[in-house]
Amino acid sequence: MKTWTTLLLTLLATFSTLTFASVKGSTKTTVTTLITYSQYGQGDIVFKLAAPEESCADGYWMKKSDPGFDANLSALLSAYHAKSKVIARGHDDQIWAGSSGRYCLLYSIELY
Fold first, then answer.
1. Residue 37 falls within a domain, yes or no?
2. Which residues lie closer than 8 Å to 53 by C-beta, 6 or more apart?
3. How far apart are CA 33 and CA 37, in angstroms?
4. What span is annotated as the signal peptide, if there is one (predicted)?
5. Is residue 13 part of a domain?
6. Domain, as residue range, for 93
7. pLDDT-derived band at 39, boundaries 50, 70, 90
8. Section 61-68 average pLDDT
């Protein structure tokens, strides 16, 4: 019985933390600022939106080690230079350590 209780509590603890982690998306807006870092985070990129989402108020960030980094960077640069509208979605529980602001880890970027 004790083993089942321990297993149940472990499963509940694991899945309850996943419930709180969420992806927050912006409205359709434009990219206003793009900052690249050659040293910090070994190539982190931060960007800001004209109309940010409240829980990602300062913008979004990307890690160079993320599998979709190149594709996301390409989409981001294209949107920035063309002044195209985007919807950015990010993990509001993974805030960038390189700033005191609220930069959410990028989950996806959608071009319009």
1. yes
2. 24, 25, 26, 27, 88
3. 13
4. 1-21
5. no
6. 22-111
7. confident
8. 94
Q: How many CB atoms lie within 10 A of CB 44?
A: 21
Q: What is the CATH number of the domain that holds 86?
A: 2.40.50.110
4 lies in some domain: no
CA 36 to chain centre: 15
CA-CA-CA-CA torsion sign (68, 71, 77, 78): negative
User: Looking at the domain assignment, is residue 84 inside a domain?
Assistant: yes
Q: How many CB atoms lie within 10 A of CB 4?
A: 8
Distances (CA, A) of 31 to 6, 11, 65, 70: 48, 40, 22, 17
What's the token pair of residue 103? 């930069």
Q: Kindly state the tokens that stand for 72.
A: 């996301």
**pTM for the model:** 0.79
Nearest-angstrom CA–CA distance, 74 and 59? 17
Backbone phi, then psi, for 25, in 5-degree steps? Answer: -115, 150
Q: Which of 54, 67, 58, 69 is nearest to 24 (CA)?
A: 54
